[in-house]
Amino acid sequence: MTMLVEHQINPSFKWIETHHLSTSEKKILRNEFQIPEETLEYVMDIYERSNYITDSVNDIELVVIHVPTKQPKDIRYVSRPVSFLVKDDMLFSFNEAESTISYEGVKESIEQVSSATPMIFLFELIRELIDRNLPILREISKERHQLDDLLTERVKNKDLVRLSYLQQTLTFLLSASENNLEILEQIKRSKLGRSFDEQTMERLEDAIIEANQVAHMTELESDIVDRIARIFDSIMNNNLNDTMKFLTVWSLALAIPTLITGFYGMNIDLPRLSSDYEWIYVVILSVILIIWLIMFINHKRK
């Protein structure tokens, strides 16, 4: 069963959608559409960075952007590539991630164009995919506010894990958004971009504006989360220092009774207490010395 889905966008061109290419689908793309094997291997690489490639020999324009994908078992997001290939009057999309590419999301905008081309449709799809970062950033902002409220409370390990997930997610999203913006600007400066008509250039600039906004918002959110992480680190270090000071004081304090009673167990000429309650005097002396030690250390800390 083939997963090559053809959408006839208008009489001028069609969009061929793929998802997790199989061997049989690759064969169809090679034989019927003359897409090179090397290109197919390239678009199937889930670790490929955002990129723009022109293949003048095979008359191919290839654009790779990154979109956010949620990890199935936790709250983290990573970025995965979605590739678009323009050849003749056809647009191919290669989706090896779990993202969905929907025509409905750009249908209204495309219908406003009198003669939509594969490039116009491509930039509308890219803009729609880039927009998917916005609800994720709102979700991250909400999570960040919750962690921010915990600064006045006792921080737990699970809160630190949540914070690390936010940092990891923002690292992926920031890198992806900056690379997406760079690729779109590269297309605008390219020979292909300089040949665009007014409508196509307008759609490209819309995508660039959206990508720039997402990159700026992601960078801002990342900076805020990094500041919160540094505050968390400072609080944890202070708590650790307080704990170590507490343990040091009490380890010294608890050594005093052992020290005093130890002298009486040695062959040292010390005044002997003849009372049956001599152990009480030793305890009282130990308590006095412990209190003096604690007061002395507290005075030094001030």
UniProtKB/TrEMBL annotation:
PANTHER family: CORA-MAGNESIUM AND COBALT TRANSPORTER, TRANSPORTER-RELATED
The UniProt record lists the keyword Nucleotide-binding: no
Pfam families in UniProt: CorA
Keywords, comma-separated and alphabetical: Membrane, Transmembrane, Transmembrane helix
Membrane topology designation: Multi-pass membrane protein
Protein species of origin: Vagococcus teuberi
Protein name as annotated: Magnesium transporter CorA
SUPFAM superfamilies for the chain: CorA soluble domain-like, Magnesium transport protein CorA, transmembrane region
